[in-house]
Amino acid sequence: MITVCGSAVEEPSPLYLGKAIKAHWGLEDPSHLEVPEDEKMQAFMQTVEHINRRFDTLFALDLAYLSPEKLIAEINKISEIASSTRS
Q1: In 10 A of CB 78, how many CB atoms?
Q2: Within the chain, which residues score under 50 in pLDDT?
Q3: Which of 32, 8, 33 is nearest to 22 (CA)?
Q4: pTM of the predicted model, to two decimals?
Q5: What is the DSSP string of 25-61?
Q6: What's the total number of domains in the chain?
Q7: Domain that holds residue 47
Q8: pLDDT, tens digit, for every residue of 8-28?
C-alpha cells in the first residue's frame, strides 16, 4: 500500500489481512490551493504526472530478485529520487 497525500502519513492505514508492504510518497493535495480553477487543474495534472513517473520507476523494478526489505528500500528511494526531479 502506497499513500500519496501529504497528510496521509499521519492517518491510520486500512486494516489488511495478510502481509502488506506500506510506504508513503507524500505529495501536496492540489485541492487545497487558493488559485483560479485553471491553475488548480494544472496542479492536479502535474501531481498525476509525478505519480505516474513514480509508478513507472516502481514497475521497472525486477521484483523477482527483491526481498520485502529491499523492495521497501527501493520504494522509499523512488520517492526521494522522483521528488528531486519534480517538474
Answers
A1: 21
A2: 85-87
A3: 8
A4: 0.72
A5: EEE--GGG--S-HHHHHHHHHHHHHHHHHHHHHHHTS
A6: 1
A7: 2-84
A8: 556 666 666 567 788 888 888
